[in-house]
Amino acid sequence: xxxxxxxxxxxxxxxxxxxxxxxxxxxxxxxxxxxxxxxxxxxxxxxxxxxxxxxxxxxxxxxxxxxxxxxxxxxxxxxxxxxxxxxxxxxxxxxxxxxxxxxxxxxxxxxxxxxxxxxxxxxxxxxxxxxxxxxxxxxxxxxxxxxxxxxxxxxxxxxxxxxxxxxxxxxxxxxxxxxxxxxxxxxxxxxxxxxxxxxxxxxxxxxxxxxxxxxxxxxxxxxxxxxxxxxxxxxxxxxxxxxxxxxxxxxxxxxxxxxxxxxxxxxxxxxxxxxxxxxxxxxxxxxxxxxxxxxxxxxxxxxxxxxxxxxxxxxxxxxxxxxxxxxxxxxxxxxxxxxxxxxxxxxxxxxxxxxxxxxxxxxxxxxxxxxxxxxxxxxxxxxxxxxxxxxxxxxxxxxxxxxxxxxxxxxxxxxxxxxxxxxxxxxxxxxxxxxxxxxxxxxxxxxxxxxxxxxxxxxxxxxxxxxxxxxxxxxxxxxxxxxxxxxxxxxxxxxxxxxxxxxxxxxxxxxxxxxxxxxxx
Length: 521
Fold this sequence. Notes:
Order of helices and strands: HHEHHHHHHHHHEHHHHHHHHHEEH
Largest sheet: 2 strands, antiparallel
Helix content: 55-70%
Radius of gyration: 23 Å
Number of strands: 4
């Protein structure tokens, strides 16, 4: 089929563009707000580095996936081929802000160091995603779905849902209506006239409530004070800063967060490819995943600390009638917005609280999907995987309360005693995402009567404890420090070692059938 028979843009592409653009814009607004409040970034750093780096990755991926869909449409003679949606992953935004950059800023008060740490995390994540393109089959076979989803659900219900639901109820006039409207629209799956995205409607309702209350004389919303001036921000490579930071070794302590997030991104992207395949759009796996990883590397090389990924939602865009043009159009428009600092302008009109409903929804849906997308018999494993993440969130609340009261965890920890087993809480906090995956995986294989595999995961936990990836710490006057050394957490090495031996022993007991039929884990 000749190129001229397949138009570059159709009516469905316009609908798809508005949906994907709104989704991308909301992610970028969250980045601006959370990086400012949690990581101390100023507008110059955000507009000149973070947003331009994001622009590079977004234009790169959107143009590729649009071109990929058009090429396959021409090759197969199928003009209805819909491009894979692409953007910045919300889960990764929250994880990298609250679990990587936020702790660095809280400990050092240095936003530049926090930013460099995030860029490092993004780069390593991109490298791991690129490697994952060549070993995705191994990952799918050896990482139980319940294990990966439970750890992320733990982050969702604690750091996302619990943290922001407090803020919603602290400013109910502006925040509650958009939050419940968004939950109502997304859960009922109703459509607004003209296919206006539900997220956009919820944000507009919040903005309307904020401005009406302001006109009535209430101070529930204070617009962003920083002036917006039209200015062109060109992408600036940060390769020197990045590789200098890599050589310093300061960022390697966050591998316990980076590795699980990279694995989740690869497997999530793979599932989205399968979703597209089920809808009749057959995209090559390796090249699609490879560009996904290269997009994250490009983001880091130009100063963005946020990896990109193939989005969920391909069936929805296809149902709208979107083809390849919506991806190309989104890449161009979102890039222009970022290069002129347009997100700052949007935030002068839209209050932060109007966005919190989206974060709450994401937290709730990720938690529920961990149970729904895993086999029902693995519900126990999902529940166990939540515990380390919840422990990490509780520890954050304890530390915050102590800091606000003028003391430190170092001073108070010995006084807790049996009232709060604070050292156990800290041990669970160290490498908590990795710990959640491991505990859940062990439980999955026990449920399936695959005790040797359970023992293997337990042995991995002993090795991680030995090298300090999980559970190891030292408590100092400056806070909790990771401990990366040989035999870093000997008590846990011994505990996991004994457990592995006992689990292996269960394999040799008289065999009995599992209480359920064996299915893919």
